[in-house]
Amino acid sequence: MQVLTKRYPKNCLLTVMDRYSAAVRNMEQVVMIPSLLRDVQLSEHRGPAEPGTPDLYTYFTMLKTIRVDVDHGLLPREEWQAKVAGEADESENEAAEIEEAEDERASEELDLEAQFHLHFSSLHHILTHLTMKAQEVTRKYQEMTGQGL
């Protein structure tokens, strides 16, 4: 696994982002044949997978895509909305617009410091969770291929 070269406080967002990027880069280096991850579940139980449950390959591609956004920034809002609109139905768009309007109204009631803290802590939690998922995918691949940890 790659070692972090930058020194930030433990709970700094930059530390969490660096840790996530390093975990995903390590996953990409270890997983030489991503197609082996298809139809393999992340959970430990060996029973049949429930329909709609993501497999390791889905996690692998999702984690790589998110890392690109973390490392290089997000698409401009207009491009992101166009991308999302191309993938969703009109009914989903209408529901999303209604939910976004409700979120905007609710967020207007909060002060900026509270909004910042909410989003910051949520992002911190999500990145930490995604880092653990990347480490799990790497570990599972190593188990499948018989590689030593």
TrEMBL record:
It is found in: Cytoplasm; Nucleus. Residues 87-106 have a biased composition (Acidic residues). This is Thyroid hormone-inducible hepatic protein. The gene is THRSP. The keyword Isomerase does not apply. Its main location: cytoplasm. Gene3D superfamilies: 6.10.140.1610. Belongs to the SPOT14 family. Keywords: Cytoplasm, Nucleus. InterPro entries: Lipogen_MT_Stabilize_sf (IPR053719), Spot_14 (IPR009786). Residues 82-106 are annotated as: Disordered.
